[in-house]
Hints:
- The protein is α/β, with parallel strands linked by helices and 482 residues long.
- The protein contains 18 helices and 24 strands.
- The model has no long low-confidence stretch (mean pLDDT 96).
Amino acid sequence: MYLGLDLGTSGVKAMLIDGDQRVIGSATGGLDVSRPHPGWSEQDPAHWIRATEEAVGALKGAHPAELAAVRGIGLSGHMHGATLVDASDRVLRPCILWNDTRSFAEAAALDADPRFRALTGNIVFPGFTAPKLAWVKNNEPDVFAKVAKVLLPKDYLRLWLSGEHISEMSDSAGTSWLDTGKRAWSTELLAATDLSEDQMPRLVEGTEQGGTLRAELAAAWGMGSGVVIAGGAGDNAASACGMGTVAEGQAFVSLGTSGVLFAANGSYLPKPESAVHAFCHALPNTWHQMGVILSATDALNWHAKVTGRTAGELSAEVGAILHAPTGVTFLPYLSGERTPHNDAKIRGAFIGLGHESGRAELTQAVMEGVTFAIRDSLEALKSAGTSISRVTAIGGGSRSRYWLTSIATALDMPVDLPADGDFGAAFGAARLGLVAATGADPLSVFTAPQTAETVEPVADLTAAYETAYHRYRALYPAIRGI
């Protein structure tokens, strides 16, 4: 058996699979996000441990014999988080999360240093780890002085699981300290933020062994000795392993809290000026590109909270049949935006409201706004030399037929839905655990699921969607100055 642990923003998911990759069971421990100031987003790493214990405890209760047979554990987690520990591995402050934008000034200062884009292949975004450390140095110098190790969220879980400071390439590529082409820490970039390689975890590939489970935890969970922990992956690369998106030309769109358009690459193809992320994949000698929007289902959840309805009720009100855009446009920049704008200060907007604009029209605009933001990512990936002819949809938002049809029409390409099953980050992490424990060929393990059905673009609405998209594109520069 193999265990995948996915540390998400809202919970830790534990998934158990067997040697044939059949899902035996899964469980989740819940998490909350603290927002002590506007633009801030934090979590207490102790809560990650509690949620992991809840999830694994539930699996143990339901599948004790199968959990006892675990030989490998894979890790996945939300990226970019700055988890700071001292020389005794004590946490120094709450983890600053991926969607925290407080370090926008520090990010701009680092991005102005041409070495960062040249070596990392990426803009220094405010959500990345390096500017967060610069912010801590500027605003919490006593904390900065005590930092012995900077760990990404899933790698703090690894520290608890194994007692070792280890990370891997896909997650570390989102720190602004990795030489992404060489797949190694850059001492030059670390020095630019007054840090050294000694304060970084050791690097392995995602498919390699990255520690073993501590004897105390193995005993508590009813496992044997020598359980291998894989290097693992950042959440999107782990989802790609779960989806089998590991070869050139394969792509998926993820409609989760944030939105991602992910394309696997057989070579390193940076184009930082497009605000496309060029990161290492979880497999050796493989990279990937991502367009990232910060509010996808989060935008619909915000709208649901404001209107006093659930997201499901709002989706049902819109229906399943795609409508032409109404003229109401929504910009989903509730937490700023990454691709293509790299703007931490921009905020969302409804444009084109009239007396005839009801709740259903606003819901439609929210969904279209997320769709057009994903179209922005497609255009950015094209400019970086990546060609995509179809995508597979994953994430909670993919349950909405309306949203999928909207995306297919805006991108003008088929959207595939995988057959029943959970092929997300927890499944990808479990697959990584299998590879690390057995030495199996990753390409034979990271296969794509069967396609249950394909959602095609609505040809009669393609022109209307194109017009609406260009209206959407014109609005960002119009409101940026205010």
